[in-house]
Amino acid sequence: xxxxxIYRSIPAALLLILSLxxxxxxxxxxxxEMLPNGMxxxxxxxxxxxxxxxxxxxKAGSISEPPAKAGLAYLTAALxxxxxxxxxxxxxSEAIEFVGGSLSASAGDDYTTASxxxxxxxxxxxxxxxxxxxxxxxxxxxxxxxxKRITMNWLIQQQEDPGAVASIDFARAVYGDHPYGRQVxxxxxxxxxxxxxxxxxxxxxxxxxxxxxxxxxxxxxREELKLLLGKYFGNWQEKKIPELVLPDIAPKQAxxxxxxxxxxxxxxIILGHLGMSRMNPDYYAxxxxxxxxxxxxxxxxxxDNIRDNRGLAYDVHSYFDVNRFSGSFQAVLQTKNExxxxxxxxxxxxxxxxxxxxxxxxxxxxxxxxxxxSFPLRIDSNSKIAGFNLAVEYYGLGLDYIDxxxxxxxxxxxxxxxxxxxxxxxxxxxxxxxVGNLAKADLQY
Amino acid sequence: xxxxxxxxxxxxxxxxxxAFSLPVNEYLLDNGLKVLILEDHKxxxxxFQVWYRVGSRDEKSGKTGLSHLLEHMMFKGTxxxxxxxxxxxxxxxxxxxxxxTSRDYTGYFELLxxxxxxxxxxxxxxxxxxxxLTRDAVLSExxxxxxxxxxRTEDDPQSFVFEEVMAATFKNHPYRRPVIGWMSDLRALNxxxxxxxxxxxxxxxxxxxxxxxxxxxxxxxxxxRTSFGSIPAxxxxxxxxxxxxxxxxERRVYVKKEAELPYIxxxxxVPNIVHEDGFALDVLGNILSDGKSSRLYRALVYDQQxxxxxxxxxxxxxxxxxxFLAGATAAQGKKIEDVERxxxxxxxxIKDTPPDGQEVQRAKNQVEASFxxxxxxxxxxxxxxxxxxxxxxWKFVDTYLDGIRKVTADDVRRVARKNLxxxxxxxxxxxxxxxxxxx
Lengths: 445, 439
Description:
The complex is a heterodimer.
Chain A: H1 12-19, E1 31-34, E2 40-45, E3 51-58, H2 72-80, H3 89-98, E4 102-107, E5 112-119, H4 123-135, H5 141-158, H6 162-175, H7 196-206, E6 212-218, H8 222-233, E7 256-261, E8 266-274, H9 283-295, H10 301-309, E9 316-322, E10 327-336, H11 340-356, H12 361-373, H13 375-378, H14 382-394, H15 401-410, H16 414-424, E11 431-436, H17 438-441
Parallel strand pairs in A: 2-6, 7-11
Antiparallel strand pairs in A: 1-2, 3-5, 3-6, 4-5, 8-10, 8-11, 9-10
Helix pairs in contact in A: 1-14, 2-7, 4-8, 9-12, 9-16, 10-11, 11-16, 12-15
Chain B: E1 3-4, H1 8-15, E2 24-28, E3 34-39, E4 45-52, H2 66-73, H3 86-92, E5 96-101, E6 106-113, H4 119-129, H5 135-154, H6 157-169, H7 183-188, H8 191-201, E7 207-213, H9 217-228, E8 251-258, E9 263-270, H10 278-289, H11 295-303, E10 307-314, E11 322-330, H12 336-352, H13 357-373, H14 378-391, H15 396-406, H16 409-419, E12 425-433
């Protein structure tokens, strides 16, 4: 598959599902249970390797923070394992690293994850640490200052990555004031304004069992898991979660072009527009359509045209970046500055062709057989299953999702594809971002 | 697709902390083709891989990038199967395929539901012997690879430094050359070069098949014999005879390029993993670099706050002696000279005082845990098996884990004193140039 380069901070677990879901066997993968405090548990026992993976998703991300405090959700998550009331940052890292485990936390647009992977023999230590960092972070001033500095440096260094620069500018142009329009990490201006009290308040408001999904996969029985959850999360109290208020996003009425001049040999191009929410019923027809357009690697039209036939790019792909509340469509490529105009023209041509005529029988059946037939590969490891279970719960897909998926995909028709192409691809009112040597690119857009 | 491992940090994660002791079965066909099969039935999936013992190490001056371009061409069709069909056939079966080229080897893999795993066998056998290299296809794919080079190296300041450091570290050994090739070489590669390279190195006696996953080895061996057994062995494989000359003093290179933060990368020439220093060098890399409790993170990032990131890695899984790397990205406003001094201070500390027992034990625990955890992925198991087989032989995997367990704190100090010395050192520094005025 050509590289997927996605810079907006979508938790990796979710990406798996968003980009390529596809079940095909009649088994219920996980057992689901809601604890008395409202925490939802998903459990898949797999005893083949003596290890356990845990992913906790707390439904608070950059969408939950005030615009002036951009980066608050990110900083809150990043500070979780930098000290608790009982442990220093150093004690946490030494404890988990001594047993060869991993413990991390990060915030995305829609939610925050805290992840643990340990050998079976260290599961007690692992839950102890996980519960400590999620429930009792200390937010010490010196750690806050340190993490702010690292984050701001990271934002500066990110400017060295032309793909990241393009992606950031694209999101800002498409989403405007909506939280999806800003970087989860915040900005060099917003980060300094975040105070210790902001962090305590954010954690206090959103980190609650009734706002949390826990996905556990590995060498652990249901009974063992229940004991650990009771011991380490049993006293976590339910609370009322603030309601989310999000601004509307208006689709563009004309093309808008953003140009960034850098001394580069390639022009990095993103062409796209608003997309769709994961909850949209057209989602499935859209992923089949996009597989044919630019999501299907060497089976896609964009690769065939721009890479295979013209030799213009190494990586060219398109995808629908779906979130809980909205999403975007993006066609992404990099080409030598001199061929930027041609490559952009071909992307637009392929979008138009998708809207003008039905796909062939072969294209449709190939897309369907890939999407359904590749399902076993999506759930063949602990970490993949943990992410899958989490997405099924978060998007309310239902535990029978695996059984339903093939028939949903196989029900998509050529007419559906034409309909969703016309509805969700807009080759006229796009946002085009180009980052490259503009003198050499000599853009006609 | 058709990716290569040029970013050192990523490669390191793959190799630095891997080991296993698994029920691998080895078969040898009459034509010299080796087959390694590891049955693993925890999920109904499997991977089929063909690895060739050829990489940029086998290339000549003026022809760099040949192995990697040939890797791309392997997806362009054979006499029987036309262009553009390989990956499409795999995807139609719900599978994924890709390939990678390194200094020492080139590998091709497919991942599929296990009931379809025999599907790529015939296709792989076909492209081992019947590749079609048309002029148009070669020229077009050459353009694709130049785009790949722009993406990975030309426009990525830290990758660019890595390439410069390697070119300065090695004087006469082909490890000095980038896997993807120099731009001017790429532009001049022609179908004839590729055909010769293909004929010289793509033969059963220079290949290893690796199968990991939910397979029945008797059944799959039968299919492998049917498809590959009749391919005649090729002529003897050309030997690469270059041996790196002794270095007589530190080398330094500077890269001035549009960038945001200064960066330093230090390479020490060191022996590979089969050498008596190998295991202790691996533990040393771990103590310096693995996690937030490691020395470089603790000193440069956490305590002194002069770096955004700091790391080290022993690159021991190579055919010939390669490098021990250390590097750091300066924090904004910090001088790269100070970052360099701090980095070297940490190395000097280990040469001075052996690490404490806790640190050595942590490194060993991390290696052992990652050995267990990688068994969660059939792909990772196959990659590890293959990269050992291509460099030091797959059986060394067992020796490896045992060797790591025996390393002592004194060993770590000894190998640091012996190997991390100025005479073996090449330092590369990125000096960011201010942005030119925008339009």
